[in-house]
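Quick illustration, no need to memorize.
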Amino acid sequence: MNKVSLLASALLISSAAFAAPSFADQVTTDTYSSLQDSNRSIESVTPFANVEYVVTVNTAKLKDAGTDSNISITLYGSNGDYATATLNGSFEQEDSDTTRISTSNLGDIRKITIRTDGSGHKPGWKIANIKITGNGKTFSFAGPNRWLGDGGSPDFETLFPS
């Protein structure tokens, strides 16, 4: 390669490094700026943004309402997506157990499915209610009108906001 070719290549590379931002970069910057001006969060309008949903499960006050089973939940959102997570907690009688789920923006929570694997000593479980917060909104669900996992078998219930 001769000196002229090397010089031309170096100029081409350096000009590419200082190229004007793409249309997508400009739209993202403009959108973010307008969101800051309007006091709206980027998560409320961007379906792929990471959002933290806080799930609080309250176990009923009834005798033996708690469970030792493994519990999971699926959140179904208005954006057409869903997220499934294992819940953390002791799920004992009258307990309030909270789990944070970080996922893509699901939008408003339209329904949930709560699951128990029916394992452990006294697997039957009576839920009082479930509260989910995310995107600056709170969604409340009454507990199912029955015991879940009673008898030691896997069980689930789909609930809609009350």
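The helical segments are 3-17, 23-38.
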